[in-house]
Amino acid sequence: MKAIVKVTLRKGVLDPQGKAIEQALHHLGFNGAENVRQGKFIEMTVPDGTGQDKIAEMCRQLLANPVTEDFEIELVA
Amino acid sequence: MKAIVKVTLRKGVLDPQGKAIEQALHHLGFNGAENVRQGKFIEMTVPDGTGQDKIAEMCRQLLANPVTEDFEIELVA
Question: What was the ipTM of the complex prediction?
Answer without folding.
Answer: 0.86
